[in-house]
Amino acid sequence: QVQLVESGGGLVQAGGSLRLSCAASGSFFSIATMGWYRQAPGNQRELVATITSAGSLSYADSAKGRFTISRDNAKNAVYLQMNSLKPEDTAVYYCLADIWPTRHWGQGTQVTVSS
Question: Which among 95, 96, 97, 69 is positioned nearest to 82, based on CA atoms?
């Protein structure tokens, strides 16, 4: 069974920074894509950023220039450095890991940005 454990969420003022971390544990051979989605109240879950095992990156337009995704394959971990945070970034952030044939999700971590 695969588990994803997230950390790093919290309350921050607009313009501030947070770093989210997610580590995968369990029995598996390798992880393909890892990344982050987010869901604000009343909204659908949306892509924030993903990174493949080879290091290819993909960002939502809202994240470009402010957020940086990275991963440590040796630790089965993915990170999201979020700078210049805005109130509209407030959401529950979910980590994902594609471990064939399933996309696994973390439990979510709350990020709240106050104005």
Answer: 69
Phi, psi torsion values for 4, nearest 5 degrees: -115, 125
In 3D space, the residue among 6, 7, 15 whose CA is nearest the CA of residue 83 turns out to be 15
Residue 7 token pair? 């950390």
pLDDT digits 0-9 by tens, 9-67: 999 999 999 999 999 999 888 999 999 999 999 999 999 999 999 999 999 999 999 99
Looking up tokens 């313009």, which residue turns up? 15
Query: CA-CA distance, 17 to 96, in Å (whole number)?
Result: 21
Interstrand relation of 57-59 and 77-82 (parallel, antiparallel or unpaired): unpaired
Beta pairing partners, 82:
18, 67
